[in-house]
Known about the structure:
The structure holds 2 protein chains of 2 kinds. Chain A contains no helices and 11 strands. By secondary structure, chain A is mostly beta strands. In chain A, strands 2, 4, 5, 9, 10 and 11 form a 6-stranded mixed sheet that branches. A 5-stranded antiparallel sheet of chain A has the order 1-3-8-7-6, with no helix packed on it. The N and C termini of chain A lie far apart (40 Å). The N and C termini of chain B lie far apart (37 Å). In chain B, the strands form 2 sheets. In chain B, strands 2, 4, 5, 6, 9, 10 and 11 form a 7-stranded mixed sheet that branches. In chain B, strands 1-3-8-7 form a 4-stranded antiparallel sheet, with no helix packed on it. The radius of gyration of chain B is 13 Å and the shape is globular.
Amino acid sequence: QKEVEQNSGPLSVPEGAIASLNCTYSDRGSQSFFWYRQYSGKSPELIMFIYSNGDKEDGRFTAQLNKASQYVSLLIRDSQPSDSATYLCAGGPPMEYGNKLVFGAGTILRVKS
Amino acid sequence: DVKVTQSSRYLVKRTGEKVFLECVQDMDHENMFWYRQDPGLGLRLIYFSYDVKMKEKGDIPEGYSVSREKKERFSLILESASTNQTSMYLCASSSWETQYFGPGTRLLVL
């Protein structure tokens, strides 16, 4: 059974701080990882994806992947109240037919002003 | 921009009714997915399709069926709605990597 695990939270951080969201996965065959943000009552929207070990930066967001430890993280710098949402981690082999992703249950992030 | 639309944002149906949820994407994606999302359970895959008239069961297909007659359209059918199918239903489409989600349909079965 392929699984993606996330701490459900809530993770509370003050405005301007760095929020660190973590995710572990069980399938060593997983090659691609995705972070989605979901506001209450809305659908998930893609923040970024990562395939290679190391860091990938996009604006205030940095995704980190460590395949040896089967660990993915998302750092949000200079956190804003508008970042308050549920963050979903998903993993999947990039070339699998149909691109069936496995999603974690999500971490609730609260940024306090 | 990828656009995925769903036929309804909110639906209220009675137990035993046949329910159709429709999803349309405008990016010529091969792959389309139907999920349901419930508090504490995350996103659960119901069915997916990787081509016209092709479908595969996901993790929770019981009580659901799907139809994909055209590439851009993927329909989810609840043959006989039950109260435990009250949920948020999300459609997604993808090319070979990223999945893009529609706005979701919140279904209430009374």
